[in-house]
What we know:
Blueprint: H1 11-29, H2 39-53, H3 59-75, H4 79-94, E1 96-103, H5 110-120, H6 126-138, H7 147-150, H8 154-159, E2 166-171, E3 175-181, H9 189-196, E4 201-207, H10 212-217, H11 222-232, E5 237-243, H12 254-270, H13 275-278, E6 279-283, H14 309-315, E7 328-336, E8 340-345, E9 351-352, E10 356-360, E11 364-373, E12 376-378, E13 380-381, E14 386-392, E15 404-407, E16 414-424, E17 433-434, E18 438-443, E19 446-459, H15 461-465, E20 480-481, E21 486-498, E22 510-515, E23 518-527
Amino acid sequence: MAPPIPSHATPADADAAADDWATRDDFEESPAGSQSHPPAAAAAAAAEEAQEAAPLAPPSEDIKEIESTLQSLELQPSDVPHDSLQTEAEERNRKRHLNVVFIGHVDAGKSTAGGQILFLSGQVDDRTIQKYEKEAKDKSRESWYMAYIMDTNEEERAKGKTVEVGRAHFETETTRFTILDAPGHKSYVPNMISGASQADIGVLVISARKGEFETGYERGGQTREHVLLAKTLGVSKLIVVINKMDDPTVGWSKERYDEIEGKMTPFLKSSGYNVKKDVQFLPISGLLGANMKTRMDKSTCGWWNGPCLFEIMDCIEVPLRDPKGPVRMPIMDKYKDMGTVVMGKIESGTISEGDNLVVMPNKANVKVISVYCDEDKVRSAAPGENVRVKLSGIEEEDIAAGFVLSNVGNPVGAVSEFNAQLQILELLDNAIFTAGYKAVLHIHSVVEECEIVDLIEEIDLKRKKESDPKKKKPKRKPLFVKNGAVVVCRVQVSNLICIENFSDSPQLGRFTLRTEGKTIAVGKVVAVPPAGSAIFKA
């Protein structure tokens, strides 16, 4: 029997509705071959029955009927996103993900190279490029239009300087990349540090133009500082792109390319890079896109036989992270959006929807509502991914940059002092490094003022190589150290910070010390107080 029609319906409506239900019932009940009731007759009979039953039907039953119909309709499509999420996750798992940071001296062409990569990989259409060209021309800066893809705010465009770390995504056949465009200007080095601390590989952009390479490389130039910071922050592989090779002062000259490579190689070695294994040099033109997506045209540059930038980035190998390790995600930023959303890079472990985690150091228990990679919602995200995680159980104002999302069972330690092995790079004029020295500590996404409270031991690198136990001298406890020294010292901060031993988690155990806008030392955490304690026991 057909369901009752609402009592306020007109007979015509009743007919139409009953007819509709009847044909549906007929479709469901009678097998394909059976023709026992002609549809028209069945419909007519159903309509008569419906008209008789209509006045008797209580309205509440009618509402329930409609609600249940709506529910059954709603339930059907809910499986579709489920499947698409699954295929999306499979697609992601097939392609590896790498974070690439563009570093180098101001005006070397980092934003232009990043913009060109996005254009060549089809992330930006021609119309947008034409708009940027016109905008750059209006500002009498014709050659800046590619940089506008990465430098999005007005201040950056007006000055031609990157301030914030630009972020964009592109894909090749085998890899998904996140580009981090770091600022080159010395005033914005803290921003550069936050960009480099998320990166797996670095692209060091050097300008080949006469005078520009020299300015960036000499003392006070950002090329040196950026390389040291990149190494300290865990950028294990470096691609050195020698940009602006098309400049009239260079003209794709092999002599100029060799000169720059010759000067950079010893410096990269002294910074801790294995130049044969971890560094690759190549000439490009960021503005023209030469030797970036496709190999160099012999008519442009006859002497270069090597690969192009995309090939090198595709083939580069980076150390694998442990997806089954303890969850560690330093929080870089947070905002409100129908709940609390935190942003950061997963350094180890896997974060999935529904996980119960803890935000350290304030020990707030939270639940993961949803996980987003780039702009896409995913069920879970592996180490190395830049993610946005929506949490319940904590307010946005209770989170600060530098807090760490971690397992409930194995949370990251929260300490206010630790022992570190430091390499002193360049102290400010007339300064000596001794107990009582104050600086700004940068470790993962933490920026905190710190004080050196004790120099424990100076390490003599020359003697370290002569590892004969008989010749071992007793530890030397220095009163002060100078430039170039390697020293183990105790560092104290006023607030609790989340760190781990470098040997356990390199990403949470390496740091830089800066003072008055200069990087004075790089180091690694060698000892932290025992679990559950913020300070060392006397």
